[in-house]
């Protein structure tokens, strides 16, 4: 049985990244999953209105290892 998603309400100054950091302790790859779980959330702007209900996936998938980009030789 899969764990249920958690719902939180935004407080003053919250962004999706900040909520992810508070709940998961990291944001790499998680922010996109939270946005997918909350259609229309990105349309609210960078700073969420106070009291916005945000659904957080119970166990987000671990992001795949990114390819390293070397800027200089």
UniProtKB/TrEMBL annotation:
Pfam families the record matches: Phage_tail_X
InterPro entries: GpX-like
Protein name per the record: Phage tail protein
